[in-house]
Amino acid sequence: MSTYFNQKVVWITGASSGIGEALALELAKAGATLVLSARRVEELERVKQSTSLPAERVMVLPLDVTKFELAAEKAAEIITRFGRIDVMVHNAGVSQRSYVRDTSLDVYQRIMDVDFFSTVALTKAVLPYMISQQNGHFIVISSVAGKVGTPMRSGYNAAKHALHGFYDSLRAEVFDDNIRVTVVCPGYIKTNVSLNALDSQGDKYGQMDANQAKGMPADVCARKILHAAAQDQKEAFIGGLTEMAAVYLRRLWPSFLFKMVRKNTPQ
């Protein structure tokens, strides 16, 4: 593991499970000081214990990321305790499993709030501190869905596409402030993302996708994410051959990709 994260203060959203939890465990091994955020306090406490870090190096900071008005307050709490925020990991997110024709507009609003607007709010809260310290790193967990749109994920695809546009702009704006931006595009990772996805009316989908079930283990994904960030990669694609092929087909042979997407039902 690179020494890049050693002694850095890292704030992770969506830290109570899945990729967020795996990142917390890997960052603990790398010597980071952690701030763990999600809604479920008991799960955050479990992750905190799993890191085996001394209590003074882990802050549990419960947060509903859609409470945008709390972003600045939460960032200030971290500064009060640790004096700086070196890395912001935007990992909180929600997926979708429903067709456009069936999906309530409220569901689209909720997806955009969690997957896009929350990252904007938190970025704007953290950015002044990073500019002041003339150093920082945003690690943004997008998805292959941020490059390739597929059926039953229209809102999720849209939110992830939006992340790329926003953080590409930010990366250019803060280059002279020594602030890095890494946008990560995982493919199928073995997490509960499909179980917790929203259906057409905003309820939990509650089913494990076949491709998700056989996806890359979250701990392997986490190590690849941290390696990409330490190498200052601007975009990182993590996943199996099928997902990676889709990304390149989107660039080189889009008509063929669109045909394949059309013929394949989500798995």
TrEMBL record:
Keywords: Oxidoreductase. GO terms for molecular function: oxidoreductase activity. It holds the Pfam family adh_short. Residues 8-192 form the Ketoreductase domain. InterPro entries: KR_dom, NAD(P)-bd_dom_sf, Sc_DH/Rdtase_CS, SDR_fam. GO terms for cellular component: membrane. The keyword Oxidoreductase applies. It comes from the Bacteria. Belongs to the short-chain dehydrogenases/reductases (SDR) family. PANTHER family: DEHYDROGENASE/REDUCTASE SDR FAMILY MEMBER 7B, DEHYDROGENASE_REDUCTASE SDR FAMILY MEMBER 7B. This is SDR family oxidoreductase. It comes from Salmonirosea aquatica.
